[in-house]
Design brief:
mainly alpha; three-stranded mixed beta sheet; two-stranded antiparallel sheet; about 60% helix; globular; binds zinc ion
């Protein structure tokens, strides 16, 4: 019998190398989910910044002082409670889209259309907290890592900063700008649920009433029957299970909220 040991040995080395690469890239999310993260955070931040600059070029920016100070007031109260040293920036886009996003690198966008569905500061805080949670839980990284869009030899950042291409659309969609570029890439159920949980903590520690999150998603569901369904729902699918889970999480969030209020966290945006 001819021994094939050398080949098997080589295969074993390759397998071990691949496995260790995978293990090195496989990280635990804040709520304990395992996710494959292939990109360093610095590179994700570059992608986020490039996508943000693109969005600012393509979409009108609101000049309404009331809307701007209202959205900034809510965003700043929340980002003050987010761990890490990211410097967050928010832009209000003048668009009927019922939508918002947050990108790696600390870039947040709120569309004026959302202000009709998120009817008060607490409901808007629920959306912003949820979007920020997608970033801090590194869901964009997981989505880009799981995709095969950057196999042309160009880096993902180059693709985003470059001219129009289907790859670029895909990448923007994976970063959470799906509705913006007309491409439907919804977050997974696990990611949505995780963003809800973390988002509740953020809004509550900033002194926003977490019960408003349930109202917000009910408003979204009601608005989805209209002529123009909320864009936010195309990338953040919601259903009664989600609303039930959020409702169950409210008692814990109320403890955080009451503590924050007693410590003087009473935003009045
Ligand atoms: Zn979401």
């Amino acid at each position: 019998m001819k021994l094939k040991a050398p080949i098997n040995f080589k295969h074993a080395i390759i397998a071990i190398t691949l496995l260790s690469l995978f293990l090195a890239a496989c990280a635990t999310s804040p709520t304990g989910r395992r996710q494959l993260l292939l990109f360093p955070e610095s590179q994700m931040a570059e992608m986020g910044v490039a996508a943000y600059q693109q969005t600012k070029k393509d979409t009108a920016i609101s000049k309404n002082p009331q809307s701007n100070s209202y959205v900034s007031c809510i965003t700043n109260a929340i980002t003050a409670k987010v761990e890490g040293n990211t410097v967050w920036e928010v832009t209000v886009f003048d668009s009927e889209q019922v939508n918002a996003f947050a990108l790696p690198g600390g870039k947040i966008g709120v569309y004026t259309g959302l202000l009709d569905v998120a009817k008060n500061q607490d409901q808007l805080a629920a959306v912003i907290g949820h979007e920020i949670a997608h970033v801090t839980a590194r869901h964009g990284n997981a989505r880009v890592s799981a995709s095969t869009v950057t196999q042309t030899g160009l880096t993902a950042v180059q693709v985003i900063a470059g001219g129009a291409s289907s790859e670029k659309q895909q990448l923007l969609g994976l970063l959470g700008l799906g509705a913006q570029v007309g491409i439907l890439l919804p977050y997974g159920r696990g990611q949505e649920s995780e963003a809800d949980t973390i988002g509740l903590t953020y809004m509550a520690s900033a002194g926003f009433d977490p019960r408003a999150s349930v109202e917000l998603w009910k408003n979204m569901a009601a608005a989805s029957g209209g002529k123009a369904p909320p864009e936010l729902l195309s990338t953040h699918p919601s259903n009664s299970t989600r609303i039930n889970k959020l409702t169950q999480a409210i008692p814990d969030a109320m403890i955080i909220y009451n503590k924050a209020q007693s410590q003087g966290e009473r935003p009045n945006c």
